[in-house]
Every structure is written in structure tokens, then in C-alpha cells.
Amino acid sequence: MIRGFVVAALLALSCCVPGIHAEEALAPVEARVPFAPGAFTGTDGLVHLAYELHITNFYGDTGPLKPEGLQVFGDDSKTPLLVLDKDALSRMVRPIPSDHAPVSIPPGKRAVIFVWITLPSVAAVPHTLRHRIEFETDKQTVVTLDGARTRIDGQTPVKLGPPLRGGRWLAHEGPGAAQSHHWGSLVAVNGDLTIPQRYALDLVGIDASGHAMRPGVKDIQKSVHPDWVGYGAEVLAVADGIVRDARDGEEEHPPLSPQPEPASLTAHGLFGNYVVLEIAPGVFASYAHLQKGSVKVKPGESVHRGQVLAQLGQSGNSAAPHLHFQVSDKATFEGSEGMPYVFERFDYLGPESEAQLFGQGTPWKAVTVAQRRLQMPLNDVVIQFPDR
After folding, report:
1. Closest alpha carbon to 26 in 106, 141, 190
2. pLDDT at residue 8, as a whole number
3. Which CATH class is domain 19-151?
4. Domain locations in the chain?
5. Is the dihedral of CA 83, 85, 88, 91 positive or negative?
6. What pLDDT, in 10s, does the model give residues 69-121?
7. Rounded to whole angstroms, how far apart are CA atoms 219 and 150?
8. How far is CA 46 from CA 62, 172, 248, in A?
9. What pLDDT was estimated at residue 210?
10. 176, 201, 292, 319: most buried by Cβ count inside 10 Å?
11. Are 39 and 127 in contact (CB under 8 A)?
């Protein structure tokens, strides 16, 4: 009886909610954005917002709800900033639908939509966002969500120096890749559901041909650490700060070897040898997969920008030598949220695919080098940091 009363009340209210037409039935869902997005400029020269919209089909007897698409509006505008049809939506959601099927949210279940909004400039960034989704029910009727408002975090992204010196680096699994193991990984630990790696980068060293391994390696499955271009590179403090956590002594895995299940969804379970710096109040830069025996700092020490912290390695949950770098709002991995940041200066050399790293497909060729300032590297682009 109570369930029927609630649904009837929702239907009656549809005529009174701004943005909802009288003939529309309100969707019986809970919808929210747990972590407010902040704007940043990417290597495409455009401004982006990256965040997650959680949709829960709350009632057990509602039946599956099938979203027809998503529209996102800024402030009180009637013109959407983003429009995704059902096919596009299926590529931006977790759990991932099987066999490219349309998204369907079963009764009592949740879907997480990864929203990526591109704007021409900082001036175009709204103060709030509103979401509209029409759902098809199992009775071939349509119910509508129009709301789930969230504010935009107006803070300027933290400005960072280089985490590595010189060289060419593929920014792999970076921002904009909703299905990556970074942005796409929700971490549920001790009551918190967060995305610590929302803006994380895997920085893979490459040579002038775009290859991750040095010339002469005949069987990549039998490669050793020194065969990899970036292995042993000096890892640098991106800003003045205080070491809040660090670990050394963990063994490194052979390259491209099967990875064991992590012992826990924590820095100790994932990062191998690592360093965590507090570079501003509530802002933490984490460096993971460092070379065994190379960590030069201890918790509590003060460091200065450009100081050598360690060397790039392959410890922890890592299939190949690279530097995992992220910025978040807590010193711990679990319970933290990934925060946007920008590097003060680097060179942009164009996109590269993972296959090209290993000499497969069309050979990689750098574009004309362009100096970039105050930008975040987007997914699968090659960058070069200053030599000093």
C-alpha cells in the first residue's frame, strides 16, 4: 500500500516540478553526483568536466528501467551541454552492458554513468548542472528523471611541475577514457565508494619511434626491465611538500607477466613501492610502481619541487615499467577522490595507440612539437617534460 501511494504521489507531482511536463511521469529512481566536478584544460585546448552520475532503480517491483539517453544542462539553460543517445550511453556506463546491449537497470540495482563534457573555454563553464533521462519501463511506458543537480567546483586545478625529467612519455589510460582501469575503477572500502584514479596517468617511456622497448628486443615476452625505455628514470617532486607516506623494498615483477590479485584496495595492495606527497592542504600527489631500493625520502620529510624522490620501476600491480601518477584529496588510496591538476609546462607530440608502443599497426610519427602550458594530458597522447 505504501509503495503504491509513493508512486501515485510521484505521478501527481510531475505537473509541479520545473522542467517536467504535465504528461510526464517521474522516474522512481535515486540519482546523484557524489563528487562535484572541476573544470580543467586538456591537451586538445578545450575545457572539460569529468564526473559520475549514479542512478539507482530503487524499488524491487519497478521492473528494469532502460535509459533512452542522457541530456546535461548548465544552470537554467534549455540548450544541453551534452547529449548521449542510448548507444553512446552504453559506452559510458558501469556495469558494462554485455555484447554492446542497451543499458538496463534491474530493480534494486545501480548504474554509474561516466560523464565527459567538453566546453570551448573557462568562460563557458556553468555553476550547476542538471540531468534529464527518459526511461522505458517493462510495460513500454516512459518515466522521466529531470534534476539530479550538482554544483561545479570552482577551484582552479593545482599547478604542477614535471614528475619526470625530459624524455618522451605516453600518457596511457588517462583522462577521458571512461572504461580505463583508472577512471572506470570505483573503489568500495569501509563505507566509502570513491574514484581515487579519476585523473591518473600511466606514464610509459618511449623512444623516437614511439616504441616502449629499446631496439634489438626480439621477443617482448622475454624482455627484462632494462629493455624498457623509461625504466630507471628519475621521479621528481611536482611541488614543494611533505612526505605523508612512502614504501620501499617490494619486489618488482617481470615485464608482461601475469599479475596476482591485489591483497587489498589500498596503496600497500596496489602501488608496490610508492611515495605520497602533501603539496597543499588536502591535496596529495601519489607516485606508484617505483624501483626497489630507489626511494630516497621518508614520511615526515619536507621536499622541494624538482627533488629526486625515486626511480621508475615495476613494483606492485603493474604489468610493465611505468610511473603511475595521480592527485587526490586524501593521503590514503582508499576513500580518496581523484582531483584535477595541470602541468605548468610540457611539449605535446601527438596521439599514440597502445599497439604502436610495441611496433604494431601504422608506425607512430610525432606531430610538430607544440609547447603546452597549464594543461592536463588526455588519454593516449605523447608528451615531453623539460630537461631541467
Report:
1. 141
2. 40
3. mainly beta
4. 19-151, 158-384
5. positive
6. 999 999 999 999 999 999 999 999 999 998 878 999 999 999 999 999 999 99
7. 51
8. 41, 19, 39
9. 97
10. 201
11. no
Contact 113, 52 (CB under 8 A): yes
pTM of this prediction exceeds 0.90: yes
Residue entry with cell 623539460: 386
Give the domain 158-384 fold: Glucose Permease (Domain IIA) (2.70.70)
Q: What is the C-alpha to C-alpha distance for residues 192 and 206, in angstroms, rounded to an integer?
A: 37
220-to-129, 189, 214, 216, 254 alpha-carbon distances in Å: 47, 36, 10, 10, 11
